[in-house]
Amino acid sequence: MILLVAHFPSLNPDELLYSGIARYHQMSGNTAQKQTINELFGDRLVCATVDLPSHIRHLSERLGSLYTVEELIMKHTLFPYYSAFLPQDKARKVYGLMSEGESHGEVHALLGIPASLIKLPNYLRFCGICYEEDMATYHEPYWHRSHQIPGVCVCPIHKVALIESTVSYMTREKKFQFTPLTDLEKYSASNLCFQINLLNQYAMVAERSYEMLKSVNLVTNCSSISEMNLYKKGYLTERGRIRFLKLIQDFNDYYTQEFLEHLQCAVDGQSETWLHKMIRGNDLMFHPLRHILVADFMGLSNLNSTENFGIGMLDINGGKWQQNIRPKKTGVRTGTPIHDWKERDSLILFEVEDVVKNLKSRKAKPQRVSLAMVSKNLNKAKIPFVLEKCLHKLPKTKHFLDKEIETTEQFQIRRLEWAAMHLSERGFVQGWRLMKAAGLNKPLKEAVEMKYNQLLDSNQKFS
């Protein structure tokens, strides 16, 4: 016989199920969290999970007709966000595990979350304005779903920086503890830090993530762009080849390096990256955040539009789609001019050396020395062609660039050195100020961490 739970609180708009359970425990008067868990799930060993909880059918049954399994999963967990681009069979498997129960961590493992470079937040977050509005409307604050999504640093409604609490997002240390927002000392928390000039980009991520959360069905798509999108943007040749050099350069120009690195979505034009794989439509899972970045870059307003399937989805009917969108050839073939590439190599090397020198010596915030950035800063009147496409004909230039192009770690070290010099001129610096000025977040790579410690040790002004 199933014992029904009385007095379970009404779940508010955008409230995490975790938050509702925390509020129930607080009002129940139970002294032990496991007592509350047993009342709600009929099992004392169900773990507290912020984003993708399980055993939800058992909870729904004990709540009587108050909430269905679908309502709890679709409206009060992060399932709609993570399932937006999953194949339907995998989305239904995740849904089933959340409904029926699973081994601890199975849902996260199925979604590739532990292995992802995009990490979960360290602590639960909230919006100061939402906090006050919830107090006025519902007489108590609560944890919002839309504030707990990876990569979301601002409230999607109020466009202000979220506040990081002291309540751990991952519950390994306190597997059975549900903590309500009312238990938090509001003013002991701290705002998430990001560059204010990037507010619009962070707001875009928050808004699109929020829209994905509001999905109320299980219809999913596997990708966010199509060959048609690529062709219209000039990233697909007449022969169907993808212009990756142009695409990567434009992507890095569209978003700043600091923004992409902060979101763990940086793209290095020198190697195969997640963006290459996504554009090609490889049969891989990609984090929803990366789908959001690509969709906004490509100018796609609706992430779940059926016209935005990935590469290969439109390549049907014997390639007839190509006949409709590609321009007809005129039949006129122009001659290719003959160039002295040896002489060009020497001239271009001089120009490239000058660009690299300027990039590394600029007093303003450093810019990464990448092939795309060098190419962007070249004098187009002197070099009227795409450098990346001709490097194989320019051995001296290529050799120089191979030595000068920075890895992510090298660029982060240079930013730390710049920040240390810049801040030491003001006479008072703390370690956290150095990190903030350099636009970095911990954990750092080993070499970057070593440089950070060296800079602190070498300057007695640093605390």
UniProtKB/TrEMBL annotation:
Residues 8-162 form the TniQ domain. It comes from the Bacteria. Pfam families: TniQ, TnsD. InterPro entries: TniQ, TnsD_C. This is Transposon Tn7 transposition protein TnsD C-termianl domain-containing protein. Residues 229-301, 320-401 form the Transposon Tn7 transposition protein TnsD C-terminal domain. It comes from Paenibacillus rigui.
